[in-house]
Amino acid sequence: MKKEFKLRGQLKKFMRWPVFLSVLLIGMDIGVYFLNVKAGVLVTVIVVLYIAIAAALYFYNKPIILNELIDFANQYDQLEQRMLENLAVPYGLVNSEGKLLWGNRNLMEMLGKDKVKKRVSYLFPEITEDNLPQGKKRAEIEIAYEERIYNAVMHQISLEELVNKTGFLEAVGEKPFIYAMYLFDVTELSTYKKKSEEDKLVIAEAYLDNYDEALESVEEVRRALLIALIDRKITKYFSNYGGLVRKLEKDKYFLIMQMSSLRKLQEERFHILDEVKTVNIGNEMSLTLSIGIGVNGATYGQSYEYSRVAMEMALGRGGDQVVIKNGNNITYFGGKSQQMEKATRVKARVKAQALSEIISTKERVVVMGHKITDVDAFGAAVGIYRAAKTLGRPAHIVVNDPTTSIRPLMAGYLENQDYEPDMFVTSQQAKEMVDQSTVVVVVDTNKPSYTECEDLLYMTKTIVVLDHHRRGSEVIQNAVLSYVEPYASSACEMVAEILQYMSDGIRIRSLEADSMYAGIIIDTNNFLSKAGVRTFEAAAFLRRCGADVTRVRKMLRDDLDSYKARAAAIRDAEIYRNDFIMGVCPSKGLKSPTVVGAQAANELLDVEGIKASFVLTSYHNVIYISARSIDEVNVQVIMEKLGGGGHLNVAGAQVSGYTMTETLNMIKNIINEMKEQGDL
């Protein structure tokens, strides 16, 4: 016993006090000898006697004290073990390999003794090596076991620290550690939280997109019946899910439902969109429904604001769809039909007057399109340039890297002395011009990251957006005027309409008319795609202003390398699932490979049986995807899943960090997923 254990710490110091006292007495005895020898002898006898008794008592009591200390430590250890064993919370120890080493009685009753020393990941699949705690941080993981839900709290215990604290052993090599795991039963709490989440109120708005147009296509005596059938179908549909429907106006509804009802509607993918279109009592045009839903707002007011923003996005994307706004997350359903062209031009006239007033109150106008400016963006920018000059304001167009498609058009302005040398500026030059007295007009895009110079959007508070693409989750914020019409064939068509209402004395020059006419031709694929009545009216207006078809055709001709690249993309195209065709356009030696890729995508639609085409082009380490369809597939939804957007039948995306093969596989996976969900 004496060889195996020694006293240490404060107890060891306390047991040595007789030694220090003996030294003090010996010193005192020496001093007494100097005073009196007889007294010194007496004191010596007493000191020797004291030392003998103290030594005898020390060596006699030391084993007894050690035994009592060991017995106390043993009893304390057993008490600690009993406390852990009887702990009301399931508790266990896990080694670094993930095996359960030991568990208290509650844990063993919960798991069963046959599961001891099995891997925790086998017992609780939610606990993996990736979410185990590291260092002094603890991890909380929600796990499910036999219809119960537990909150597993785990923290790391260093065996090195425990060993070093003993003073007898020292850890060498790799630092060993184990994990302590507590399981707190949170089944009831989780149930109440889930119930609270399911009972949360969801606010929504519903609009009939083409109410007036549909009513005009039916006999007057049947109009009331058509309205009644639509109201009944909408009310009955949401009432079946516990929702409350109130009609606000002739074509607007206010909806309230629970979160659990919304989840059921999501699972069924809002088939009310298709049901509304089936209502037909002789009307030539089917009614379509748009729904905007706001979820998880801090207040009911904020949830209503979410639903309003969601409705704006649904209408801006062409209608016939559901948009759910959950904070910053946005989810889309539907959107399979093309938005109908509006017969009235009232909106164009109102926007034209507003734009005229905005330009008149500012000192300068800066216009920009999207990156890699195409003919449509260029033509629309030229139209706004002419409007600004007519109103007596200096204007500049931001073009950083002119593509081969717009260089012939730009050359006409650069070589013409009637136009200022600073008509076209770079992003850096534009930054030096833009201030709070400048209006920045964005054409042919509504995504800030796609613009030629995004920084300009934050250098002024006066921003105008003119675009014909469907809105996505990323939009230009705080625009004082936003005119986004997905039914329009091109931005040039929209600008041509605006110019007719901006000023009575406006006169577009022939070179400017050529640019805008070229934009319409390119975006409509020679009036074969998305060309409506208003498209031809805009083209007629530009022809009256001096646009020459022959001159435009000459400017839009391709070189031989572009022809060969387009032919290579078509030759090597792959048909996928009988309905989709995919190709890769070579970009080597091409000045504007993205334009060639878009042209190849248009031509691939001429293949019999093809519903959608996708052409990939690599340019500056970015893969550009051009997606096209005729009427059966919404390629915008497909491209949005890759971070892009566009129209129902004309869309695109930009992907970086992936190879061509990986990007093709991503498109195929999206098609497979949408096929399974019934979206295609």
What is the rounded distance between the termini?
83 Å
Strand order of the largest sheet: 7-8-6-9-10-11
What is the gyration radius calculated from CA atoms?
40 Å
Molecular shape: elongated
Number of helices: 24
Number of strands: 23
User: Per DSSP, what share of the residues sits in E-state strands of 2 or more residues?
Assistant: 15-25%
State the major sheet: 6 strands, mixed
Secondary structure class reads alpha/beta
Q: What is the typical, i.e. mean, pLDDT?
A: 83
State the share of residues found in helices, binned by percent: 40-55%
Low-confidence stretches: 165-173
Describe what this molecule looks like in 3D.
The protein has about 675 residues and is an alpha/beta fold. Helices cover about 45% and strands about 20% of the residues. The chain contains 24 helices and 23 strands. The strands form 4 sheets. Strands 7-8-6-9-10-11 form a 6-stranded mixed beta sheet. Helix 22 links the parallel strand 19 and strand 20. Helix 14 packs parallel to helix 17, helix 17 crosses helix 19 and helix 18 packs antiparallel against helix 19. The longest helix has about 50 residues. It is elongated, with a radius of gyration of 40 Å. The N and C termini lie far apart (about 85 Å). About 0% of the residues have low confidence.
